[in-house]
Design a protein that fits this description.
rod-shaped, single chain, 3 helices, mainly alpha
Length: about 100
């Protein structure tokens, strides 16, 4: 595999970070739909099977989006763990600091 320069890694990570932010927005929207489906299920004494199917499908959608976010975050983390002594390894602390602020 070709070795990327620290600048290329930083650029790739910036793009991935934007994708993560977009995915987080999707997760919020899909979780809102999921909550709404949960409320519909709770309203019914005996919810129809189709409602349960919608609920499960929506849960899988949310889980899938969260999985994509975790994957992208781990790729960013791994790129920061390049070889020790490299400029990317030195920047790792600042990458983690910016990631933790997003979690709050």
């Amino acid at each position: 595999p070709t070795t990327m320069t620290p600048a290329q890694i930083a650029q790739t990570n910036a793009i991935k970070q934007q994708q993560i932010d977009v995915l987080r927005g999707f997760v919020r929207a899909e979780e809102t739909k999921l909550a709404s489906l949960h409320q519909q299920v709770e309203k019914h004494y005996d919810p129809p099977d189709t409602l349960y199917e919608q609920l499960q499908a929506q849960q899988r959608k949310v889980d899938g989006l969260k999985e994509k976010i975790a994957q992208a975050e781990s790729e960013i983390a791994n790129s920061a763990n390049a070889e020790p002594g490299s400029p990317t390894a030195l920047r790792r602390g600042s990458v983690q600091a910016s990631n933790s602020s997003l979690m709050g």
